[in-house]
Amino acid sequence: MLNHRVFVPGFTGAQKDLALAGARRLGYELYVSNAELADARLSGPLAVRLELWNTGVAPFYYDWPVQLGALDSHNTLVRTWTTPWRLSSVLPAETHTVWSYTETNHGLAIGLYKLVLCVHNPLTNGALFRFANQTQDANLAGWLTLGQISVVSNLARPRLSGSRGLAGFDLQVSSAAPGVWVVEQTSDFAVWTPLVATNTSTAEWAVTDGVSSPARFYRVVGPP
Predict the structure, then answer these.
(1) Which of 178, 203, 101, 114 lies closest to 151, judged by CA?
(2) d(CA 137, CA 131)
(3) Domain limits of the chain?
(4) 23-152 against 159-221: fold identical
(5) pLDDT in tens, 54-76
C-alpha cells in the first residue's frame, strides 16, 4: 500500500523527518563514515581505507560491483578500479565495516584528483545506488566523492659515497629528499644492519663508521 500524499504534494518539516525515519526502519541505509586517503607516488601504490555504517535494519543483499574512480580538475572520470568489496558484508550494527583496497598500478599522471566511489546497478537503465552521504553526486552523478589526493613524482634516491679517514670510514650522503633515511652496512649482502638513522631536511650529511673491517658494504634506504 502506498501513501500518495508522500509524493504529491510531498512532506516537509517534521512530517518529512518522520517519514525518513520510518523508511530507514524498512531496509538498508549505507553511508561512508570515514575515508582514509593517502597521496600516491607516480610509480607507487594507491591505498584507500573506508569505514561504512548501515543505519538501517537489513543488509543490501545483492553484491553489485563496487568501483573506485578518480576525477580530474574538470570532474571528468579518468580512471576506475573494480574492488573486491561486497555490499552484503555491511550489516546493520553499531560497529563500522572496514573496506581496504590497494591498487599497485593506478595509472594516474602527476596532479590532483578527487577519489569517488560507485556501486553499479547491473540492470540496464536501473535505479542508481546512492549512499546516504551529503557528497553523493556532488561532482558526478552516481558517484560518492570521498576526498582529494595528490599524485606526486617518484622519490629521487640519494647518492652515497665514502672514503677512509682517520677515525674510520667516512660516508657522505647527498641529494637526499627531506625525511627519514637509514645508512645500513653488511659484510655478506644477506644481513643488513642499521648504522645510523636520520630525519633531516638537509640534502647532504655525513656519518663515520668507526669499525674497521676489510670487507664492509653500505647503502642508504628510505621511503619507497
Answers:
(1) 114
(2) 9
(3) 23-152, 159-221
(4) yes
(5) 988 888 889 999 999 999 999 99
Distance of CA 105 to the CA centre of its chain: 13
Q: Which three cell numbers stand for residue 123?
A: 540492470
Cα 9 vs. chain centroid, distance in angstroms?
Answer: 43
Provide the whole-model pTM. Answer: 0.64
Fold of 159-221: Immunoglobulin-like (2.60.40)
Nearest C-alpha neighbor of 99 from the set 81, 86, 118: 86
Query: Percentage of residues in the chain with pLDDT exceeding 70?
Result: 88
Per CATH, the number for 23-152 is 2.60.40.10
Distances (CA, A) of 109 to 32, 76, 81: 27, 14, 15
